[in-house]
Specification:
By secondary structure, the protein is of the alpha/beta class. The chain is 44% helix and 23% strand. It contains 15 helices and 14 strands.
Length: 419
C-alpha cells in the first residue's frame, strides 16, 4: 500500500487502522473504525467525551488490545510484531506516567532504558528531548516539586525520547496556562516538521491552528476525515458574503446576481432617515468576488456600507457532525430498548397475567400495545424457553416477590390455625 500511495503522489501511510472494534461489555468505544495516517502530517483527533478517542489512541500505542480489527505501525502489526511497532511510537497519555520521587533526569534515563535506546545514545537523546521540551533548567529537580505545566513537559520529553517517527499526544495542553499552551503548540509544530503527530484535544481552536488533517469520531464511529478548510467548506457548501448597500432591493439584487454562476442571493431592505438600504446575503460555492462587487456597485452608484465574508467555524462543524451522529445513535438505542422491554413484558404476562401499571412504569409511558405489537413468528418471542434476565429494581419482579411472600405468609398462618 505504501508503494501504491507513492506512485499516486500521496504520502506513505505510517499508521493503518482497519475495522477496529473495542467492546466494553456491550458499549462500543470503537465501532468498526478504519482510517490511515499519512507520514509527516499533524492529525487532530476530535470527538465528544466518551466517543472513543483515548481508547483508540491506547490501542494504536499498544496499551490496550482491540476486540476486533488490526492496527499497523510502519508496516508492523501492533499485536503480532508489538516490539517493532512500539519502537515507532512515542506516546503521551492524558495523565502522564510520571514517578514523582525521581528527578527529571532520573525519569528520562529510566524511560530511555524502557525504550531500549542504546546506552551510548541515551545521553544525547535525553539532551535533545529535554531541550525541545525546555526542561534543561529543571533536570535536577524532583518531579513532585514541578508545576503542572512542567510535569506535562516531562511527559512530552518522554514521548520524544529516541525521536520515534510517530508521536501520539492525548490532551497535551490540558491544565496549562495560556503561555504554556502557546509554547506546547509551537513545539507540536516543530515536531510536525520531522514526525507524524496525532493530537487529541477538546480545544478546537488549537486543533484548527496546528493540524493539517482532522479526524472526528462520535459514538465509536468515524464521522469525518479531512483538512480543517475542507470540513468548513463542506459543511457550508462554500462561504457566505454579507453586504449592506445603499439602494433598492431590486437594483442591489440585480448587480449581485450578475456575478454568481451558482449559489443564492437573499435581500431585504430597511429605511433609515429617509434613505433605503439593502442587506444582501450571497451563498457561494467557491471564489472571492468582493473586489468585482465593489467596482460593480460603485459603477451603479450604490455605495457599499459594509461587506463581510463568513464561513463555518470548526466548532460549528464539530457540533453538527457529532450531534447528527448522536441523534442516530439515540434512535438505535431507543429502538433496541423498546424491543427489549416488549419481550420482557410479554414474558411477564405469559407467567403472571396483565401487569399494565408496572409496564407503564418500566417504559416511562410507552403504550403497552406498542410494545406488544410484534409478529407472532418472531424467533426472539416464540416460546417460554427464552429466559429473560431479571432486572434490578424491576417493578414486575417486586410485584411477583410480594405476591409470593403474601401467599407464603397466608399458608403459614393457615397451618398454625389448624394446629
Amino acid at each position: 500500500m505504501t508503494d501504491d500511495a507513492g506512485r499516486q503522489g500521496r504520502r506513505p501511510f505510517v499508521i493503518e487502522v482497519k475495522n477496529l472494534v473495542k467492546d466494553y461489555g456491550g458499549h462500543l468505544a470503537g465501532d468498526h473504525l478504519s482510517f490511515a495516517i499519512e507520514d509527516g502530517q499533524i492529525y487532530g483527533f476530535l470527538g465528544p467525551n466518551g466517543a472513543g478517542k483515548s481508547t483508540t489512541m491506547n490501542i494504536m500505542a499498544g496499551y490496550l488490545g482491540a476486540t476486533e480489527g488490526q492496527v499497523c505501525i510502519n508496516g508492523h502489526d501492533i499485536l503480532e510484531d508489538a516490539e517493532e511497532a512500539k519502537r515507532c511510537i512515542g506516546y503521551l497519555p492524558e495523565l502522564p506516567p510520571l514517578y514523582v520521587d525521581m528527578t527529571v533526569d532520573e525519569y528520562l534515563k529510566f524511560a530511555a532504558e524502557l525504550k531500549r535506546i542504546p546506552k551510548k545514545e541515551q545521553e544525547e537523546s535525553i539532551e535533545q528531548a529535554a531541550a525541545m521540551a525546555k526542561l534543561s533548567d529543571v533536570r535536577g529537580r524532583l518531579i513532585r516539586n514541578l508545576s503542572k505545566g512542567y510535569r506535562q513537559r516531562v511527559g512530552l520529553a518522554q514521548a520524544m525520547l529516541g525521536m520515534p517517527p510517530v508521536i501520539i499526544l492525548d490532551e497535551p495542553t490540558v491544565g496549562l496556562d495560556p503561555k504554556q499552551i502557546i509554547e506546547i503548540r509551537d513545539l507540536i509544530r516543530d515536531l510536525g516538521k520531522k514526525h507524524t503527530v496525532i493530537l487529541s484535544s477538546h480545544i478546537l481552536s488549537e486543533v484548527s491552528a496546528v493540524c493539517d488533517h482532522i479526524l472526528i469520531i462520535s459514538g465509536g464511529k468515524l464521522v469525518a476525515s479531512d483538512t480543517p478548510e475542507n470540513l468548513e467548506k463542506k459543511m457550508t457548501g462554500g462561504h457566505r458574503l454579507e453586504l449592506m448597500v445603499k439602494g433598492s432591493v431590486q437594483s442591489a439584487r440585480t448587480v449581485a446576481e450578475g456575478f454568481l454562476e451558482s449559489g443564492a442571493v437573499s435581500a431585504v431592505s430597511r429605511e433609515e432617515n429617509g434613505t433605503e438600504f439593502t442587506f444582501l446575503t450571497l451563498e457561494m460555492d467557491e471564489g472571492d468576488i468582493r473586489e468585482e462587487l465593489f467596482y460593480a456597485y460603485a459603477q451603479a452608484g450604490m455605495p457599499i456600507y459594509s461587506m463581510n465574508m463568513t464561513k463555518a467555524s470548526l466548532e460549528e462543524v464539530f457540533l453538527e457532525l457529532t450531534e447528527n451522529q448522536g441523534r442516530s445513535q439515540g434512535r438505535l438505542q431507543n429502538k433496541g430498548m423498546k424491543h427489549f422491554l416488549g419481550r420482557h413484558l410479554r414474558k411477564k404476562e405469559r407467567n403472571f397475567g396483565p401487569i399494565v401499571s408496572e409496564a407503564e412504569a418500566e417504559t416511562g409511558g410507552v403504550a403497552r400495545e406498542d410494545l406488544l405489537h410484534r409478529e407472532e413468528d418472531d424467533p426472539a418471542d416464540s416460546g417460554s424457553d427464552i429466559d429473560m434476565p431479571a432486572e434490578a429494581g424491576d417493578p414486575a419482579d417486586g410485584w411477583t416477590e410480594q405476591a409470593e411472600g403474601s401467599d407464603k405468609k397466608a399458608g403459614d398462618r393457615g397451618e398454625e390455625e389448624s394446629r
